[in-house]
Specification:
With about 250 residues, the protein is mainly alpha-helical. Helix content is about 70%, strand content about 0%. The protein has two domains: about 5-105, Multidrug-efflux Transporter Regulator, Chain: A, Domain 2 (Orthogonal Bundle); about 105-250, no CATH class.
């Protein structure tokens, strides 16, 4: 015969849980022996394990009472129904896990594989997180509006990264994120950017981008980088307008 502590240990529950099941009428409470202790037999252990198993499966305690009183066939049918419900919950939770994994992945949530590869390459080049985060958010906007153009855009961006001068320019722009509006280094960066624009041929893909999308992307740049307006002002002095969609405003 077992004490309540021993009974709880056998069934893998707490003494408090046993007393709770007594109070709910799920587990009969035996009479006390001559020493004043309640003693439990093997049948109590089996019943308590059934109660714990059903409760752990999410079966309401009121339903547990019904199942414990049910016949063998009725109990088997009820358990099969519980099993179907649990399997459905598992599938739903698996879908939730997949969505959480997508969120954790970040880049792949709303970007095609070629854009994810481009962002991975930026990381390999050692560019800082804030710049990569800005690139990701910008390309999410582009992919939502022009998904059919993403393979071409990413091909050209990857080709740009093959040029060491472009990579150095990316590093300059990454540092620029934290500059104050009067930072003296801006002049050298704007010179290098103008040189890069004059050497590049971006019309093939820039012409495909709607003006409203370019304006939206420009606004993100202007709102997130304190020195952005000063940079665009210097570019305009050198004959270039815009940011996402550069436009030459006078001959070189």
């Amino acid at each position: 015969m077992l004490t309540i502590s021993q009974l709880a240990s056998y069934a893998g529950v707490t003494v408090r849980a046993v007393r709770h099941y007594h109070a709910k009428g799920l587990l009969p409470e035996p009479e006390r022996d001559r020493s004043g202790y309640r003693r439990y037999d093997a049948h109590a252990v089996v019943e308590l394990i059934k109660i714990r198993t059903l409760a752990d499966a999410g079966v309401p305690l009121a339903r547990v009472r019904e199942l414990l009183a049910a016949g063998e066939e009725e109990f088997a049918v009820a358990v099969a129904d519980i099993d179907r419900r649990l399997r459905a919950e598992i599938r739903q939770r698996q879908r939730h896990r997949e969505r959480i994994a997508q969120l954790a992945a970040g880049d792949s949530l709303a970007l095609p594989p070629e854009a994810v590869a481009y962002l991975d390459r930026l990381r390999e080049l050692g560019l800082p997180g804030p710049m990569i985060g800005g690139e990701r958010d910008a390309w999410i906007l582009v992919a939502a509006r022009l998904p059919e153009h993403m393979p071409l855009y990413m091909k050209m961006k990857q080709q740009e990264l093959d040029d060491p001068a472009v990579v150095e320019l990316y590093r300059d722009l990454a540092m620029m994120i934290d500059w104050e509006v009067d930072d003296p280094r801006l002049a050298a960066v704007s010179d290098r950017l103008v040189a890069s624009l004059e050497a590049a041929d971006t019309e093939e893909w820039e012409n495909e981008m709607p003006d409203e999308l370019a304006e939206l992307l420009d606004s993100v740049f202007l709102d997130s980088v304190p020195i952005a307006r000063q940079l665009l002002g210097r570019l305009e002095e050198r004959g270039w307008r815009g940011w996402t969609k550069f436009e030459r405003i006078r001959p070189a």
